[in-house]
Every structure is written in structure tokens, then in C-alpha cells.
Design goal:
This protein starts with 14 loop residues before the first strand and ends with a strand. The strands form 4 sheets. The chain has a 6-stranded antiparallel beta barrel. A 4-stranded antiparallel beta sheet has the order 5-12-10-7, with no helix packed on it. The N terminus is likely disordered. The protein is α+β, with helices and mostly antiparallel strands. A hairpin with a 2-residue loop joins strand 18 and strand 19. Helices cover about 25% and strands about 35% of the residues. It has 4 domains: about 50 residues; about 180 residues, Elongation Factor Tu (Ef-tu), domain 3, CATH 2.40.30; about 70 residues, Beta Barrel (OB fold (Dihydrolipoamide Acetyltransferase, E2P)), CATH 2.40.50.100; about 90 residues.
Length: about 450
């Protein structure tokens, strides 16, 4: 058209736009010569993405500095029964144990019975005792004993000679008495002479008896001297109970053999323990408690017997708290004062018949119990100065609460003041947990 030049271009006034990043962007409605419209749109897109990235980075930094919830374990307080116990390992034992000992020294034959065998009082022979063998003789002792034998033999010879002399004198006295009788009948001697002759006969008769007794004594002395030379010999071991040479040791009571102290054959002294006898159906439990725990236990207190291998708990009752204590060294080398507490079974024997003498059990004696107590897990407690405290949980945050505690056992504590039933507390709080700390419940498992 006339009046327009082909080299000229029609334009709109420029407008300034501002990007989200704060940079000015000039756009043209139309630029056919340089294509400025396409260049401005690309610039706008590039700066928009940069601005969005910067915004995300700033938001991430802000989120990183925000406090994050600490995962914790939670527990809800509830009311219910609670009991306090003192517990320790115990050992079963037969109530009345009889120790059978050797009444005399001797050689005990092998114990033929076995642990667990039944025995009857005054009938069952537990063991037989034989005499011991003589001791060995050293050279000097043997020489002395041989000389003693020779002395005894010489004394016997002397006694035999004395006996022969007494016999001869008695024979002569009889002859004299007979002659005196004949003379007295004729009136040739007086009555006194006859009496003296009669006395001589009786005197010689007594002397003869003395000589015979002396000879017998010398014979025994010779046998004694010869016996002292007897030494140990394998022949001395041939004696058996059937030969009647042994001393039988019988059971003092009805029951079973609990233990055998001397099973093999051997020499024992008088009073040596041979075996233990008792009735396994009459059991009791002995628990050695610390003396500080024993003072809390009263006779007649209930006890819980567990850990005995039978699965179910057994009921028991304290029969006696021994009045004297003793010192026992613990596994850590610490001397502890202990007191024996005797517990009887409160269950029928059929439930614990599988237990025997010397079995291990776990016994907990109840020293306090209540039916309605506000119970707090002990894992939630910690010290805050001189007080007990917990972290209560509500609204996703913790709250430091000081509490007053009564009785306490290994699992729960009695809450007297500071908490109510149904409130939630933090278990085993770590050093990341403080007052007003955001928390989140840790998933179970």
C-alpha cells in the first residue's frame, strides 16, 4: 500500500513484567524482525523454575530446624491387685533325714543297694562290717614279738615243771596221811599229828590246782604271743556274711536310700557316715534369704513356688524362719549374711510328686499384698532431685510429673499421689526426652 514502507514494522509499546524472582522482563507484543516474543517466554520459564527451586530449598531448611517427635514406649496406668515379694533360689529336702553311720570300726563290704531303693526299718541290711586286717610288722617289732613268744614258751615249761612237782608232793602227802591213819588207829601218834598230815594233803591239793591254772595261763600267753606275729593275708578277705563273721548295719526307718557315702569296700572308723535314709514323699523347701529380706518374712506367710520344672506355680507357706544367720560368699566375692527360711508345700502331693531330695526351685515369699492399687511400671520412674518423677504423655508431648510412691516390686510401683488411672507415661525415657518434648509412640515389636 502507498504510504507504508516494506522495511518498517508495526510495534506496541513495551511493558515491563516482574518475575517471581524479582527480575524485570520486557516483552513486545510483536517483533517480526528479531523474534523477541519467543525469547521473552523462554526467559520467563527459566526464571520461574529457579524461583520454585529456591522456595523448596528454603522450606527444607526451615523444616530441618523444626523439632522432630522422639519415638518412645508408652504405658497406661491402671488399678488392680499388687503384691510385694522377697525371692531367691531354694532347695527341696526330705524333712527328716537319717544318717546311717558305722557303729564300730572295721572293713565295710561293698554297698549292694542303690540310691532310690526302698528300705524297711530293722529289716533291710544296708552294709556288713568285717574286722580289719592286722597291721604290717616292721623288723624291730617282729623281733620283739618273736622274743615274747620264746619267753611265753619258757614260762610254759616252768609251769609244767611246777605242776609235776605239785603232783609229786600231793602223792607223797597222801602216802603220809595213810601211814598216819594206821598209826593213829594203833594209838602210836596223837590226834594232832593226824590232823597235820590231813592238812598237808589239802595244801598239796591246792598247790596242784594252782600249778594247773598257772600252766593254763602260760599256754594262753604263748598263744597270744604267737598271734601277735600274724600279719595281713589275702586269706583274711575270704569272710562273707553267710559265714556269720560280720556285723550287719540295718536301716533305722522306713523310706528310701537318698545317698550313699561309702559305696565301695574299705576300712572305716567308728562313726563314719555310710548312707542317708529318708522319705521323699515328706519334702520341705529351704531358702536362704538375705538377712535384710528375712526380717520382712513372718511365719505363716504365703509363698509362690516356681521354676521347678513342672510349669504351673505351686503354693507354699512359711513354717519357720531360723533365728540364726550365717555368712555366704556370693559369686562376686561379697560376704552376705543369710538366713534359712523353711517353706512347706500347700498343694496336694500329687502335684509335686516328681520333685525329690535336693531339687532346685525358685521361691517368692509374699510380704505385702493389696487388691486395689494404682500401679505404675517401674520402668517409667526416675529420680528428679530427692523425688520420684515420670514423664506423662498427652497431646503428643511430655509433661514432667513428680509422684509419691508407696510399695514397689520388680515390675510395678504403688502410686500414692501425682497420677491418676488412665494416664499415659513414657517407659524408659532416654536423654532425648525432657519436659514438653514432642513424642510419638513407637510401633510395637
Amino acid at each position: 500500500m502507498a504510504g507504508r514502507s516494506s522495511s518498517s514494522s508495526w510495534r506496541r509499546p513495551a511493558r515491563d513484567f516482574w518475575s517471581p524472582g524479582g527480575w524485570p522482563i520486557s516483552t513486545w507484543s510483536r517483533s517480526s524482525r528479531h523474534g523477541s516474543r519467543g525469547v521473552n517466554l523462554k526467559t520467563l520459564g527459566k526464571w520461574g523454575w529457579r524461583a520454585a527451586g529456591l522456595a523448596l530449598v528454603a522450606a527444607g531448611r526451615v523444616y530441618a530446624f523444626l523439632p522432630k517427635p522422639v519415638p518412645v514406649d508408652l504405658a497406661v496406668l491402671e488399678r488392680g491387685p499388687m503384691r510385694v515379694t522377697v525371692a531367691d533360689d531354694g532347695e527341696t529336702r526330705v524333712r527328716e533325714v537319717y544318717v546311717v553311720s558305722a557303729p564300730i570300726p572295721g572293713r565295710v563290704l561293698r554297698f549292694e543297694g542303690h540310691v532310690g531303693d526302698p528300705v524297711t526299718a530293722a529289716e533291710t541290711v544296708l552294709v556288713n562290717i568285717l574286722p580289719v586286717d592286722p597291721a604290717f610288722l616292721d623288723r624291730r617289732t617282729r623281733t620283739e614279738l618273736e622274743a615274747a613268744v620264746q619267753t611265753a614258751a619258757a614260762a610254759k615249761t616252768l609251769a609244767e615243771a611246777e605242776l609235776a612237782r605239785s603232783e609229786a608232793q600231793l602223792e607223797f602227802a597222801h602216802a603220809e596221811y595213810e601211814r598216819a591213819q594206821r598209826l593213829h588207829e594203833r594209838g602210836n601218834i596223837a590226834e594232832a599229828a593226824l590232823d597235820r598230815s590231813r592238812m598237808e594233803v589239802r595244801t598239796e591239793e591246792a598247790a596242784l590246782l594252782t600249778a594247773r591254772a598257772s600252766l593254763t595261763m602260760r599256754n594262753y600267753e604263748l598263744e597270744t604271743a604267737r598271734a601277735s606275729l600274724i600279719g595281713p593275708s589275702p586269706e583274711n578277705h575270704g569272710a562273707t556274711p553267710e559265714s556269720g563273721c560280720c556285723f550287719p548295719v540295718v536301716s533305722p526307718v522306713d523310706g528310701r536310700i537318698l545317698s550313699v557315702f561309702h559305696e565301695s569296700e574299705g576300712v572305716v572308723s567308728a562313726g563314719a557316715a555310710l548312707a542317708e535314709i529318708g522319705d521323699p514323699g515328706d519334702l520341705e523347701i529351704v531358702v536362704d534369704l538375705l538377712s535384710t529380706d528375712a526380717v520382712l518374712v513372718a511365719e505363716g506367710a504365703e509363698a509362690i513356688i516356681e521354676g521347678w520344672g513342672g510349669g504351673a506355680e505351686l503354693a507354699g507357706r512359711v513354717r519357720r524362719v531360723e533365728p540364726t544367720g550365717f555368712t555366704r560368699t556370693s559369686a562376686l566375692g561379697i560376704d552376705e549374711q543369710r538366713v534359712n527360711v523353711i517353706v512347706d508345700f500347700a498343694e496336694p502331693p500329687e502335684l509335686w510328686r516328681s520333685l525329690g531330695h535336693g531339687y532346685r526351685v525358685e521361691v517368692a515369699v509374699i510380704v505385702w499384698a493389696a487388691d486395689d492399687v494404682l500401679k505404675l511400671p517401674v520402668g517409667a520412674l526416675f529420680r528428679a532431685g530427692e523425688d520420684w518423677a515420670v514423664f506423662a504423655a498427652a497431646g503428643g508431648k511430655t509433661s514432667l510429673r513428680r509422684v509419691e510412691i508407696g510399695r514397689m516390686n520388680g515390675r510395678h510401683a504403688e502410686v500414692l499421689q501425682g497420677l491418676e488411672a488412665g494416664e499415659t507415661v513414657v517407659l524408659h525415657p532416654s536423654d532425648r526426652v525432657a519436659d514438653a518434648t514432642p513424642i510419638v509412640a513407637r510401633p510395637p515389636g
